[in-house]
Design brief:
Pfam families: 2-Hacid_dh, 2-Hacid_dh_C
Family: Belongs to the D-isomer specific 2-hydroxyacid dehydrogenase family.
Strand order of the largest sheet: 8-7-6-9-10-11-12
GO molecular function: glyoxylate reductase (NADPH) activity; hydroxypyruvate reductase [NAD(P)H] activity; NAD binding
Strand content: 5-15%
Bound molecules: 3-hydroxypyruvic acid
Helix content: 25-40%
Protein name: D-isomer specific 2-hydroxyacid dehydrogenase
Organism: Pseudoneurospora amorphoporcata
């Protein structure tokens, strides 16, 4: 074996490359790829223990590889060989990876932040309009052989008492509250202002003055509702919930944000609010949401994400005011390709420069 061959880094590939084949081919020219043969979490952990992945420098993982490995929690991170120094995640949200467990083992983690912004904001826009206009009720009725609630004959005869979908609301002039103003939130703000003439308020722990300036330059009417000092965020949240006609959840899922929207928060909202969630299901308490929908406190919701994917709360499935999409926020050829290419650029930087293009914010000081 030549010294060059001996020094070729090894990559543990968790999942498959679906789109960015050219970029991946270049990686295979400088590294060896190892794939697990196991088909369950316990087998995968045993495969790690067998030494099959020893001397791998990094693990490249897709969103769907969680189906094999389960959560990358303390147990799984400890099972990885000590040679693993990087976990390259294909996706913006990395809540399935325990960052403290990685940090403790000196493993750096990257995600694909801005690559997802356009497609996810487009999905939010679709859900927003659909939920405001009650399109789901009409669309469901059609598939049940009804025209806006009645069968063909009842409609032709102009029969009274047909249960029509409720009249929708126009977005123009309404306030969209964005909880978690990152790349997706800003892209959504720009789109709703331009396409629908909505006003935007937002809440982050820290005000993003530069982001505000950029959005104002695009004609967006925008206000940060957080307050300074202790209690500022809680006060801001009350304002955001109380003043929004539509609330969009765009914050990452972590210990602080899990169920940030639950019974108490629903009670603070304007009655009849519309909620959109393209972030992660568990930022909202699903059982409490079902109750808030049933009571009419929440008029309608547009959801792309769920607490226990792929399982969906029966109360959501049964409610015609719930517009449901099965986690398709980034499900476009262009965006999935962009995400893979972004992740592969992290692979290359790790191998060639010993650093990451987009290390997760919690590990910025490890770069
Ligand atoms: O990038 C993400 O976090 C997604 O949810 C895409 O599936």
């Amino acid at each position: 074996m030549s010294s060059e061959e001996r020094q070729r880094p090894k990559i543990l590939l968790l999942g498959t490359i679906e789109h960015a084949h050219d970029a991946w081919k270049q990686v295979t020219e400088i590294a060896d790829i190892i794939q697990p043969t196991s088909s369950s979490r316990s087998d995968f952990i045993a495969e790690c223990a067998s030494g099959a992945f020893d001397s791998c420098l990094l693990a490249y993982r897709t969103f769907d590889s969680t189906l094999l490995t389960g959560l990358l929690n303390q147990e799984l991170i400890s099972a990885l060989p000590p040679s693993i120094k990087y976990i390259i995640h294909v996706g913006a949200g990395y809540d399935v990876i325990s960052i403290p467990a990685c940090t403790a083992r000196g493993i750096r983690v990257s995600n694909t932040p801005s690559a997802v912004d356009e497609a996810t904001a487009d999905c939010a826009l679709f859900l927003l309009l659909g939920a405001m206009r009650n399109f789901n009720a009409g669309m469901t009725a059609l598939r049940l052989g009804q025209w806006r609630g009645g069968d063909e004959e009842q409609v032709r005869n102009g029969e009274k008492g047909i249960k029509m979908p409720a009249l929708g609301r126009d977005p123009r002039g309404k306030t969209l509250g964005i909880l978690g103003m990152g790349g997706i939130g800003k892209t959504l703000a720009s789109k709703v202002a331009g396409a629908f003439g909505m006003k935007v308020t937002y809440l982050n722990r820290r005000r993003d003055e530069e982001g505000e300036r950029e959005l104002r330059d695009q004609g967006v009417e925008i206000e940060w509702v957080g307050g300074d000092g202790e209690g500022g965020f809680e006060e801001g949240l009350k304002r955001l919930l109380g003043e929004s006609d539509v609330l969009s959840l765009n914050l990452p899922l972590n210990a602080e944000t899990r169920h940030i929207i639950s019974t108490k928060e629903f009670a603070l909202m304007k009655r009849g609010i519309v909620i959109i969630n393209t972030a992660r299901g568990a930022v909202m308490d699903e059982a409490a949401l079902v109750e808030a929908l049933e009571s009419g406190q929440v008029h309608s919701v547009g959801l792309d994400v769920y607490e226990n994917e792929p399982e969906i709360h029966r109360g959501l499935l049964a409610n015609p005011n719930v517009m449901l999409v099965p986690h398709m926020g980034t499900w476009t050829v262009e965006t999935e390709t962009k995400m893979e290419e972004w992740a592969i650029s992290n692979v290359r930087m790790a191998i060639e420069e010993g650093k990451l293009r987009s290390i997760v914010p919690e590990q910025r000081d490890m770069q």
